[in-house]
Each structure stands twice: as structure tokens, then as C-alpha cells.
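Hi team, as promised in this morning's meeting, here are the two structures we talked about. I've kept the exact order from the run log so nobody has to guess. The first one is mostly here for context; it's the second one we should focus on when we meet again. Sequence first, then the predicted C-alpha cells.
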Amino acid sequence: MLFRRRHQLPWWKKLLGWLWPRSGLKRAGQYLWHRIARLPGTPHSIAAGVASGAAVSFTPFLGLHFLMGFAVAWLVRGNLLASAIGTAIGNPWTFPFIFALTGQVGGLILGDAVVAEIPAWNWDALLGDPVTYLSAFLPVVFPLLVGGVPVAIVVWLLFYFSFKGLLTGYHAARLNRRQAKKSR
């Protein structure tokens, strides 16, 4: 291979590279910010895309976050690539906190009597009758969905207005630097 390491890393260093970037979290965050800020489009479209991706991360539909993010971004005229980047808010480190928050909000909205305990994993229910499967997992997913909708709306608003302000300033500063460079 052309770009392969001469000495392969041990498996534990590869795993550590997935958990903690070699350049550090600050540098990885800066890289992600520059990737978002340099996307083509207006500050509204980029901010709406990121906000859409972040908002759908607060729903319990784990396999559908990209598609749901694209749909919401399309509805609000947001950038689709920015919505894909925004779904990174929901990741294995944040999902326990997200589900705890949305479950609590759903429990408050529905009343505590509706919130059920998480059932034990049952392959027979999963592979067998769909009615049994739904009756086992609907009491768990429904409060997450009911609590996820208001939380997603708040998250969308927070991300949209914060990113729109940051992107407007970033684009203005970048334009000023270009004009100052041309005038020299």
C-alpha cells in the first residue's frame, strides 16, 4: 500500500486512537468547526443544517438520524452536509445522557405511571411475533419519543441561533481578511 505505516500499531493503540484523537480533542474540535464554517452556503443554511442534525439526535430512532436530519434540513432550507455533521451530537458517549434527559421529560409529560422499566433482552420476542416485540418495547420508546420532541425543538433553536451568529462573524472576518490581502 502507498500510505501504510512501516510498523503497524498494536491493537490497543488503534483503539485508543478511536477513543481519543492523537492530535487531541481541542484540535479535532477546531478542525470540525472549520469544516462546518467553510461549507458552501449562507450562514442560515449551514446553521439550519447543523441544528437539524443535532435536533434529530434527541429522538430514539438511532438508525434513522441521518435520514431524519436530511428531511428536517430540507424542510427548513438547511445544508444537508451540515445536518450530517450535526448528527455527531448523538454518539455513544452522549446517548445515555440524551436518553436520560428525554426519558425524564417524557415521564413529566406523560406522568410517571406510563414510564416503564427497560425489559431484558429477549431474542424470542425480537424474532417471533411482532406484536410481542412492540408490546415489550413500546412502553420504553414512547416516553423517549414524547420527551424527545420538545427537547429537540429547544436544541434546534439553541444550535441555530448560536451557529448563525458564529458563522456570520466568521464569514465577515474571512471576507475582511481577503479584502485586506487584496489591498496590499
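And here is the second protein, the one for discussion:
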Amino acid sequence: MPPVPQDGLQGIQDVAKRLGVTHRTLRFYEDKGLIEPARVGNTRIYSHREVARMQLILRGKRLGFTIREIKEFLDLYDVDPTRLEQLQHLVAHIRSRLRKLESQHSALLKTMTELQAMEAEALDKIGELTPKS
């Protein structure tokens, strides 16, 4: 990975490589208004701030938050220097996401139990129907 320049400014290629995403991904989040790289002619230049925002975006996506939820979170970060409102908002979304995941987890466990029972029944039936030699 290329070292981050002293001024912290990086081109799209370096940022994409550093974050493990494509140029298209960076442009997508720019189009959605989540990041705002500076421009020098046609070249996108990313500051520490934009790279940090992308890291938060990618983490949010990995945790299952929607683009809208991530945007709300980032917008709060910009208007609340204490980050109190942002953190309260984050906690509320985390709790909601955890409830959804717990529900999905329960449903998944139930489905797995049912499938295991069906498999055992099918294997028993196969054993009954298979001619003994």
C-alpha cells in the first residue's frame, strides 16, 4: 500500500487500493453525497476527512445499515461538534439492528432445526426403502 502523503491528500487510485474498493464504489458514494473529494481538473483528491468518512461508510454497510442511515449519521457528525447527538443516534440504530439480527438468528436456528429433522426423516426412509443385500 502506498504511504499516505504528509498533506494527507490522495488520489482515487490510492484511496481505492487502501480501502479495498473500486473507483466505481468511491464515485457511487460521491454521487450519493456521502463524500466530497476535492477536484483538481478532472482528478479527485481525497483528504483525511474523506478517507475517514469512507471507512465509516464501509463499516456501516458491513454492519447492515442503509445508505440513508449512514448519511444521517455522517450529517450529524458534521453539525454536532460534541458528537453527542451522533452517538445517541448511533446507539438507537445499533439497538434496532441488533433486534432485527436477533430475530433473524432465531428464525435461522428454527429453520436449521426443521431442516435437520427433515434430513433425518428422509435418511430413515431411504434406509427403509433400500434393498438389503
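Starting points for discussion:
The chain has a mean pLDDT of 90.
The first helix runs from residue 12 to 19.
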